[in-house]
Write a structure and sequence with these properties.
Layout lengths: L1 E6 L6 E6 L2 E7 L1 H4 L9 H10 L9 E4 L3 H14 L5 H13 L4 H11 L7 E4 L2 H10 L6 E7 L6 E9 L2 E9 L4 H11 L8 H7 L8 H8 E3 L5 E3 L15 H6 L13 H29 L3 E5 L6 H9 L5 E4 L5 H16 L24 H11 L4 E2 L5 H10 L4 E4 L13 E5 L6 H9 L9 E5 L3 H4 L11 E4 L17 H5 L15 E7 L5 H14 L3 E6 L11 H9 L5 E4 L2 E4 L10 H6 L4
Parallel strand pairs: 1-4, 4-5, 6-11, 11-12, 14-20, 16-18
Antiparallel strand pairs: 1-2, 2-3, 6-7, 7-8, 9-10, 13-21, 14-15, 15-19, 16-19, 17-18, 20-21
Helix pairs in contact: 6-13, 7-11, 9-11, 11-12, 15-19
Length: 610
């Protein structure tokens, strides 16, 4: 039974293949097209998933879309008409996409499968948006039963849902409807602080520790009412996302002292304080929702999905405050994960197939569900292109890379299957020494080409996580924030009243300064030998050499681009940055020995993989 799950046409399009209940492949379209947050029909991701699953022509049993387009279309019509004529410009902008594409998604998926040579799917199905999120949260989790919490901007009507999962079944207990949305509230502040909606939320979360929560009371009093039962209500007078072309309006600006920050302009104390304030309010809202859901369902296991579930600071607080006993977060919590949820929902809920959960291991295969490349393919491409490389043996692979990292070299690491979701987990990663005081600024400015204040995540040997961080469990998908242990910290958190991002970033706060944020926190990834044997071996080799069982791990890309997918993507990124070495499976390339070549379209075409 081949079930193809698809999310598309809004942002972060993706495809997933489930065969007889097993997750075989999943990937985001952006990784193939190189267009970040690509919203188009995921033709390349669909083709990859069907090829990876060895699906034969005529054997796509189900294609399932992750939401119901007609219901969403009616919501858009209704909300635009409710605020007309002010909504006219927004309405005119939205309609062509609906008339030409979104209302006909089943025909487009059918045509795509035919064009790829697989023939039409035997059945076409739809889930509701938050049903797909809930399925992606619970069904791959290790729990036999759990409370489910899904939070995002908006699906059809639902923005937040509380559910209960047991066995193969999912029940939505309560929901909150548009326009009241935690995701849209947080995005409004991202927009106001000069970051891009649907991508800048990570920056807002990273900026929050540099500020003070001086606007929290204003937010609670004027923008959002948090109720004891977990529900919340926004005062829509301050927002413009229903019928306007921006997230906020002049009333919002009046609350916070002026117009929004212009993108790329200097970040001031105001933006840092706004980030800290909305982060605090969001955490309070998430905790209220989780407590309410657990109270209603009776299960202290908690599963999360939806874009808000990528707020790893809030996730960490759920654990620290004892809101739940165990937590599992879908690594592709955004809309990409909806493709996976739609496929699993069809298999377990609609087709009533059984589900097994052992309480320990999830079904995500470490989120390593994307393409991989053989050594033969890679060697042939390297030789044809004339790139200089050495081949490492399995015995010296980890030790040699560890020696380079210890010498403060920055490594682009490409090995195994591509990760599904926004986090690099050791397959498409840039790695470096966390003990180096200069690494955070160096990697942000010269390699990632992004804002200097943004923190890097530590990858740590699973068995040693409690030696470095205030965390007593695994965090394989980099979705929990925990504090660096007090005995490893240096200095005081509050350095001065002067707002100077450069000064704050460069201050040494611990013995692993490159992964220690300004508030002594870190977004932790634990690495186990079972899920990631090669990356685990590298961490162990670095520990033997240096005594440190931690590495910097950030996604293999530069600002404005998705993480690399192919060896060619990796080489191109390597040559355009200040990385020192590139490791592609067993092959290592030194930047100094590479031939000089123009990085233009002709050069890229001539160096394609067969």
């Amino acid at each position: 039974m081949n079930i193809l799950g698809i999310s598309a046409l809004y942002h972060d399009s993706a495809a997933c293949l489930v065969q007889n209940g097993a997750i075989v492949a999943a990937a985001q379209e952006e990784r193939f097209t190189r267009k970040k947050y690509d919203e188009s029909l995921p033709v390349h991701a669909i083709e990859y998933c069907l090829r990876a699953g060895k699906v034969q022509p005529g054997k796509i049993d189900w294609a399932v879309f992750y939401e119901k387009p007609l219901t969403k279309f009616l919501r858009i019509l209704r909300t635009h008409f409710a605020v007309a004529p002010r909504s006219w410009a927004s309405f005119v902008r939205a309609m062509p996409g609906w008339v030409h594409d979104k209302l006909w998604i089943s025909y487009r998926i059918d045509g795509c499968c035919r064009k790829l040579g697989y023939g039409p799917p035997r059945h076409m199905g739809y889930t509701e948006h938050h049903q797909a999120h809930a399925a992606s949260a619970f069904l791959p989790s290790p729990f036999e039963e759990a409370t489910i919490l899904t939070m995002d901007g908006v699906g059809e009507w639902t923005t937040t849902a509380i559910g209960f999962g047991r066995g193969r079944s999912i029940q939505i207990i309560r929901h909150i409807s548009f326009p009241h949305s935690l995701g849209l509230l947080y995005s409004a502040f991202s927009h106001y602080c000069g970051f891009r909606v649907n991508s800048g939320e990570y920056k807002l979360m990273g900026l929050a520790p540099y500020g003070s929560q001086i606007y929290s009371s204003v937010i609670r009093e004027r923008l959002i009412r948090l109720n004891r039962d977990g529900s919340f209500h926004l005062d829509l007078r301050y927002f413009d996302y229903i019928g306007g072309l921006t997230m906020t309006n002049r009333h919002f600006a009046g609350l916070f002292g002026g117009p929004p920050r212009k993108p790329e302009s200097a970040i001031t104390q105001r933006e840092a304080d706004l980030a800290a304030s909305i982060q605090a309010v969001l955490e309070e809202a998430v905790i209220n929702l989780a407590r309410a859901g657990i109270s209603q369902s009776g299960s202290r296991n908690l599963c999360l999905a939806g874009g808000v579930a990528l707020n790893c600071v809030a996730n960490g607080r759920l654990l620290r405050e004892g809101v739940c006993d165990q937590i599992w977060i879908q690594p592709a919590s955004g809309d990409a994960g909806g493709a996976l949820g739609a496929a699993l929902y069809t298999w377990h809920q609609q087709l009533k197939q059984p589900r097994k959960a052992d309480g320990k291991s999830d079904q995500m295969h470490g989120a390593l569900l994307g393409p991989e490349y053989s050594e033969q393919e890679i060697k042939g491409w390297l030789d044809r292109a004339g790139y200089q490389y050495r081949k490492l043996t399995s015995d010296n692979w980890a030790d040699e890379i560890a020696r380079l990292i210890a010498a403060e070299k920055v490594i682009g690491l490409f090995q195994g299957r591509l990760e599904f979701g926004p986090r690099a987990l050791g397959s498409r990663s840039i790695i470096a020494d966390p003990r180096s005081p200069r690494m955070q600024s160096l990697m942000n400015l010269k390699i990632k080409h992004r804002e200097s204040f943004r923190p890097f995540a530590p990858a740590v040997i699973l068995e040693k996580v409690s030696d470095y961080f205030q965390l007593d469990r695994s965090s394989p998908y980099m979705l929990l924030v925990a504090g660096v242990k007090p005995d490893l910290r240096l200095g005081a958190c509050d350095e001065s009243d002067k707002f100077d991002l450069t000064e704050k970033v460069n201050k040494i706060r611990s013995c692993i300064p490159a992964v220690t944020h300004v508030d002594y926190s870190a977004r932790v990834q634990t690495v186990s030998e079972m899920e990631s044997p090669r990356f685990y071996g590298l961490l162990k080799a670095f520990e033997r050499l240096t005594g440190c069982g931690v590495l910097i791990n950030t996604s293999f890309n530069v600002r404005g681009e998705p993480p690399v997918c192919t060896p060619q993507d990796a080489y191109r990124c390597f040559m355009r940055t200040d990385m020192d070495y590139l490791v592609i499976e067993s092959f290592i390339l030194d930047k100094k020995t590479q031939p000089s070549a123009p990085l233009d379209e002709k050069w890229m075409q001539e160096t394609e993989l067969d």
